Amino acid sequence: MSQKIRAIKGMEDLFEEQSVKIWQRVESEARCLFEAAGFQEIRTPIVEETALFERGVGETTEIVEKEMYTFLDRNDKSLSLRPEGTASVVRAFIEHFTDHQVQEGRFYYIGPMFRYENPQKGRYRQFHQIGLECFGQDHPGLDAEMIFLLDQFLRCLNVHDFELKINSLGSSECRQAYLAALKEYFSEHRFQLGEEDQRRLERNPLRILDSKDPTSQTVIEGAPHLRDFLSEETQTHFLAVQEFLKNLGVPFTVDSRMVRGLDYYEKTVFEFVSTELGAQNSIAGGGRYNRLVKSLGGPVVPAVGFALGMERLTSLLSAEKLGLKNLPKVFFAALDEDSEKYFASKLPEIRQLNAMTMVDWGSTSLKSKMKRAARWGAQWVLLSGESEREKSVVVVRDMESSSQEEVPAHDMIDFLQKKFS
Ligand code: HAM
């Protein structure tokens, strides 16, 4: 026998009925809420030029250094599967929207992203994000509005056990000064850092603050704080974001150590962290990125956005929590050709029923048809064979109680409509 081909490690099939329903609900709530807030859907390609992510996400980030799926196409061009959505949306925004006089846009996207990480619960190599990107304004009220939208979204899905952490990364000038101070501090304590963090010191000392290496933690605790390097303008912006959040009734804590793993942020950054998720506890994260559009070749357009991890979010949800109701399943079993023709003639009406319906074709035995109905999880089976055709009836069988009754064939649709109305 030839060897079975399996799904790639860290990439999962989604097929269980309940899970699929939960994903569909999350997606439809997202469309509804975000479109009501003026966001339009954008679908960008999954593959982009590698340079987009190198320049967009940042060459010294873990994502670009270690986690991208990068390959040469047949023309020796370096392409990568998108590890996140922001860079692609910015590319598309520059390509299609910056000729307009008003350089603004509100976009949302839903789709798969790819990162070559070590798979574990809540961390996959193919995962899905719902993301929002808003171009055109640097107003602190917009940062708060984005956070509020995300908060609303989680609450409308009945998720309440989360915390919102916010921070300000200042402007890039504040960050330059901070980076210099960090570099100096970590260089002085170089040999108390873990090996990987010593390497980060040369490449991007900011990343050390994200380090999980226990060796480095004491040094990290004593490191200078970014908040002491914020300019007056960015401090005022950050205080205003907090004021807006308070007015909107969105609880938050300021985490002055939060830097996020992507290089494009400045000013406000935020993360929604679940208290129920274990190690991979970040449900969503985002922030402001006022320089990215320009650095990818566009004009100066400030922007802010976030993305939420579908796998992490859906692991917090259940059908009950969402109040998902399954439609009743009705199985039509024809035992002879005439009955097949009869059910076929009724298909247009059958599909109008408030139910999931399946017509079973082919002349297998009653027993095998009943088995198939049970495997599908049918609650009702409609049977018709030679004797039913002679009497002009169909048999309606309740699979749970195993009781059954005969219904006149011409009343079948009416009968079902009443049952499932
Ligand atoms: P991120 O924090 O890298 O941000 O990812 C956002 C969310 O995607 C995370 O909070 C997490 O829920 C989910 N996620 C990330 N990696 C994985 C993984 N390997 N497996 C499962 N879920 C994962 C961004 O991607 C930014 N583009 C967000 C943004 C949009 N900032 C501004 N606009």
Key phrases:
421 residues; alpha+beta; BirA Bifunctional Protein, domain 2; Rossmann fold; 2 domains; 8-stranded mixed β-sheet; 5-stranded mixed β-sheet; 16 helices; 38% helix; 22% strand; binds histidyl-adenosine monophosphate
Compact summary:
With 421 residues, the chain is an alpha+beta fold.
Describe this structure in words.
The protein has two domains: 17-171 and 231-320, BirA Bifunctional Protein, domain 2 (2-Layer Sandwich), CATH 3.30.930.10; 329-420, Rossmann fold. The protein is built from 16 helices and 16 strands. It has helices at residues 17-36, 50-56, 62-66, 86-97, 140-156, 172-188, 195-203, 217-221, 232-248, 292-295, 310-314, 319-322, 337-350, 366-376, 386-391, 412-420; strands at residues 40-41, 47-49, 70-72, 78-81, 105-114, 126-135, 162-168, 253-254, 266-274, 282-288, 303-309, 329-334, 356-360, 380-384, 393-398, 404-408. The strands form three sheets. The chain has an eight-stranded mixed beta sheet, sandwiched between helices. It has a five-stranded mixed beta sheet with strand order 13-12-14-15-16, with helices on both faces. A hairpin with a 5-residue loop joins strand 3 and strand 4 (78-81). The longest helix is centred in the N-terminal third of the chain and has 20 residues, at 17-36. The chain binds histidyl-adenosine monophosphate (HAM).
